[in-house]
Amino acid sequence: MIQFLKYVKGYLRIRVKGFSPERFMNLCSNRGILLWDIQKDGEVYEMCISLNGFLQLRPIARKTQTKAVVLERYGLPFLAPKLLKRKVFVLGLFLAVGFWIWSSMYIWRIELTGNYQITRDVFDTFLEEQGVSIGMRQDGLDIQELEKRIRRQFPLVTWASARLTGTSLKIDIKENDTPAQTEEPARAGGTDLVAEFEGTVVSIIVRNGTPKVSIGDTVEKGTVLVDGKIPIYNEDATVREYRYVEADADIVLEHAASFSRRLPFDYVKKVYTGREKQSHYLRVGNREWKLPSGQPFFVYDSLTRESRPLLFEKLSIPIFWGSRTCREYQDVEFVYTAEEAKTLLTGQFITFLTSLEEKGVQIIEKNVKIETGSTAWVLRGELLVREKAGEKTATAPPGDGELETDEQ
After folding, report:
1. pLDDT value at position 315?
2. What is the pTM of this model?
3. Taking CA 94 as the corner, what is the angle to CA 90 and CA 100, rounded to the nearest 5 degrees?
C-alpha cells in the first residue's frame, strides 16, 4: 500500500555528491524529508526521494555544498503528461475498458453438459422459446425459473443446474438412464419359425418347439420350419392337448443368391483450373458482413477458414473473422477403360461379399462375369450360400381333428 501511495504521488532516484553528503542526509532527516533505498558508490550516494521532498532540497544542498542529480523519475505525475500527448492511445484505452465492462453484462456463450438422449438442437430450440439466447443481458435471466422450466419441459431430466460464469451460461443436466420397461403383449399362443427364402435344410438344432423339416428337405418361402405347438399324448398315443411355446432353433438353409452392378462407360470428374478468389467477412453472432470481393466463378468450390481474436475468445464474445477461397473447376467427361471398369466392379463385389460374411453367411460357390452392355459395363454374380433362417410368426391354431387347449 505504501509503495502504491509513493507511485501516485511520484518520486525520484537521485545521486548526491559534493563536500558533505552525510551531513546532507542528516539535515534531510531533521527537516522530515524521507529518503529510502540509500546506496553508496565511493564518495557518491544514490537514494530515492519523494517529489515534494526534492523541491525542498535547494537550501540543504547550498548549506552542505552538495549537488543532487536526478537519475530516474517514477510515478503517476510523470506518466500522465506522456499519456496526454498520445490522445489516440488514451481514447483507445478508455474505449477498450468501456467495451470490456459493457460486454461483461451480456451472455456470449451457452454451454450444455450431461445431455445424451436430448439433442443439442432440441435444447437450443427450447431455450429460444424461453427467450434465452446469445447476446441477451445477464440481468434479464432468471436462473431458478429456467431450471424449473427445463425439468417441466423434459421429463427425462431428473436434475438441472444453471449458473453464470463470466459471460458464459453453463447448464448441467442429468438424464434418467434407467431403461424404460416395456411390457411385451401377451401372446394367445406360441410362435413358429418359418423360412424367409427358398432353400435346402443343411443343419437344424431345435431347442424349443416341434421340428417340421429335417436335413436334406427343400423348403419354399413361408414354410414352417419349427412349430410352436408341442403335442402331449395320451397312453393310447392320441393327442390329448397342445402346449404353446416360443419356437427356438438354429436352422441353416443352402440357397442361391445373385449380385449385379452396372457401371456407365463415361463419367464426369471435377478438374480444377487453378484460378482462385479470396473474400473476407466479419461475423457477429448469426449476422455476417462480407467485404467487397467481386463475383465468384460460375462453377466453384469454396473453402472457409474462420478464427476468433484472442481478446474476444477470452471474453466468450461470438465475434469471428474469416476468409473464403473460391476455386474454379470444370466438369470434364472421362471414359472408363476395361481395366478400370474391372477394378471398380470387382471392388464393389468384394464389398458385397464382406457384408455377407459379417452377417454370418457362408459362401460355398461363386461365379462372376463382367459383360459389356450397350451403355455400361455389367457385373453379374451367382452365389451358393448357407445362411441362418427362421422368422418368428404367430402359431397357427390346431386344424380339424386336433385338440385346442390353453397354454400351460
Report:
1. 62
2. 0.50
3. 145
Encode 2-31: b = buried (16+ Cβ within 10 Å), e = exposed: eeeebeeebbbebbbbbeebeebbebbeee
In the chain, which residues have pLDDT < 70?
Answer: 1, 82-85, 90, 178-188, 310-316, 399-408
- DSSP one-letter code for 106: B
Distance of CA 259 to the CA centre of its chain: 39
Q: CB of 45 within 8 A of CB of 25?
A: yes
* DSSP classification of residue 196: S
Report the Cα 8 to chain-centroid distance in Å.
50
- Whole-angstrom Cα distance, residue 176 to residue 218? 51
Q: Write down the pLDDT at residue 115.
A: 87
C-alpha–C-alpha distance, residues 185 and 199, integer Å: 32
What are 226-266's pLDDT values in tens digits? 998 888 888 888 888 888 999 999 999 999 999 999 999 99
* CA separation, residue 268 to residues 265, 275, 344, 397 (Å): 11, 20, 16, 60
**pLDDT computed for residue 178 by the predictor:** 60
CA–CA distance from 284 to each of 104, 121, 141, 169, 316 (Å)?
16, 20, 21, 18, 12
Helix (H, G, I), strand (E, B) or coil at 76: helix
